[in-house]
Amino acid sequence: MTYENLDAKLVNSLLGNGRASLRSLGDELDVSVTTVSNHLRDLEDEEVIRGYSPIVDYDKLGFDVTAVLQLKVEGSALPEVTEKLRQQKQMISVYEVTGDYDVIAIGKFTDTDGMNDQIKEILTDADIRESNTSVVLNAVVENKQFELDLNEE
After folding, report:
1. Splitting the chain (153 residues) into consecutive groups of 10 residues, what average pLDDT does each group show?
2. Which segments of 2-153 are extended strands (E)?
3. Can you say whether residue 99 is alpha, beta or left, with left for phi > 0 and alpha for psi between -120 and 50 degrees?
4. Cβ distance 65 to 110 under 8 Å?
C-alpha cells in the first residue's frame, strides 16, 4: 500500500465515520495504531483534514429556507463585501466567482421574512451594484462529500 493510498483510505474511512477510534481505523485499514496516528497527524498538519464536525440538518432545526444570492460588486470592494458576508451567521457558503456576478452566497433562514430582512440589510452596501436572489425549492444534494479514488496496485 502506498503512502498516498493509505491516506486516501484513511480519509474515506473518516468520511464514513468521523468519530472512529485510531484502533478501529487501524483494524479496518490493516495497519498499526501508530501508523494511523502518524498519517492522521500529517493530514491534519497539512490541513487536508481540518477538524471533525457533525453534519447538521438545518431543515430539521427550522432553517428550511435556502437562498442563493448573486452579487455584482465594485472591484476594489470585493474583499470587504465577501468578509461581511462570511461574518453573517446564516451564510453557509460564500464564493468569489467568474461570470456575470462576482460573488455567490448561500444562506439558511427560518422563514422568508427573516431572509428578506437579512438580504435587504446586505444590499444596503453601496459597493454592491446589482443582485439576484433565488430561493431553493428542493435541495437535491447538499453538503455532499465524496470518497477519494484509490490507486490500487
Report:
1. 79 93 96 96 94 90 96 95 95 97 97 94 94 96 89 64
2. 65-73, 91-96, 103-109, 128-135
3. left
4. yes
